[in-house]
What does this fold into?
Amino acid sequence: MPGRKSAWLGIQSTSFASQNGCQSVNGELVFSPYESGVFWRRALASLLGPDIPAHLRDDFTMLTACHMRGQARLVFVGFILSLPLVMLGASPQTSFLVAFGLPLTVLVLAVTGLIVLRTPCDLAAGASEAKQVIASVWRLCMLIAAIGSIWCVASWASAPPESKLYYPAIMALGVLTLGYCLTAVREVALTTLLVTMTPISIALASTGEVMNLILAGSQAIAVTFQVFLINRHQNLLFSMTEQQHKSAQQARRDPLTGLANRRALMERFSAEAALGSHIRLMVVDIDRFKAINDRHGHDVGDEVLCAFAELLRIHTRGDICAARLGGEEFALLAKAEALDPAIALQLLGEIRGAYMPHGEQITASIGVADGTVTDPADWNGLYGKADRALYRAKNDGRNRVRSYKAEAEADYITGGTSARSRHG
It folds into this structure.
């Protein structure tokens, strides 16, 4: 029985060693130099906070700025409310400048902060405004932290021995509260902690007295825990940013094919309209798709739609947007110079030659229209032109491309064929 227990412990020790980057030598866990480096790199990375991917940085900046704005306002109000206590508790031996001048300067800075943050965050303004908010709060907090540090060291140095410890303790409580309120932006919180706590901790440790050393050590431990709390808060905000990004992506994707949906296409159109772009729209419709559903079932029909979407996805290089408008109708949208009309003919050939899940060839019809757009409302006009061109392609025999031309459209309608007679 003892032998079995020793063997089991040996297995567990080996398992622990393999999972944590170390080796088991004679029952003792030993870190190799390389594995020790990995361990310390991971520890340093956890202190530095999450690595924000490039596509999430702007969203993360805006989210942290909004969080910090609300917390910083509370901090500034707290400063204003606590300043009478600070002046009341000033050391009798300290100068007038330290006792009253520095607190009044903090009052001015705190009021300035409230004025700067009086308007709510405008997420539509983008990351540039969020960065300006963060920079403004950072500068104000650094100035307040430096002034607080000067007040603390000067008061501690001039206070009688029986009351010296009060000032570092008061400062520690205030700074830890300040650091926690600024956890939304790690750089602001960390620099504020360091600027405020480092001078008084060095001053305490330099005396060599036991109680001063204990207080300096306690402050260092408290700051270390504060750093971990800041990083935990950063990870939480990063998770929120990731989730919001995923939700936004899902809201703009067709759940079946993975292409952009009508909402995403309209947002792209609105963005081009804001620039006054000359754009081209291709409306692509699978020929006789209803027959596929009737003969093979809707599950196979969905597979055909997904395979068809993959053919369109090939052409989404550059600024070209491929979207599913609904049913078997799709669209390609881009600036006219990016979406060459020849792509429509190339696409028809690829569709005819592609293998489809139901084992049969399919064809498609394409209507093309282009024009200069300056307003989101211009969508109806452009889409109407492309749709009428598509109807012409259907009624001319399907499996072809038609471009909208006002003269041809007039001849087509007066000739007695209604554009609304299209059936798949």
Observations:
- Residues 276 and 282 are 19 Å apart (CA to CA).
- The first strand starts at residue 23 and ends at 25.
- The mean pLDDT is 83.
- DSSP finds 14 helices and seven strands in the chain.
